[in-house]
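Long-time lurker. I teach an intro course on protein structure, and each term I like to show students one example going from raw sequence to a predicted 3D structure in token notation. This year I'd like something fresh instead of my usual example. Would anyone be willing to generate the tokens for the chain below so I can use it in lecture? Attribution to the forum is fine with me.
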Amino acid sequence: MRYKVVLQKSEEGYSVSCPGLPGCWSQGATEAEALENIQDAIREYLAAVDDVLHGTPDAEVREVEVVVSRGPSGPASIISTPCGRLRRQDFVWFGRASIL
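-- Reply from a regular --
Happy to contribute to a lecture. Here you go:
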């Protein structure tokens, strides 16, 4: 899996967060250490989410495929398909349905 992270210089070295995983932060004295630490933090975050999901009775855990494409104005938009098959009604463009 690949996640985008935000690396910032701080007084103590570097802080790093993963915007796709709210609350997932780490730090390090160097860029390399901070990036290594956020990888550990992401693994722990995902393991905790997995524990919660599988420990919830009556919950049905499913996976969806997400395809990232470029919108007409440049920024990326997210297109989600519940079954891995693209259909017109599955497309979402910046939170609004789009017609292809």
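Some talking points for your students: Confidence is low (pLDDT under 50) at residues 77-100. The longest helix spans residues 31-54.
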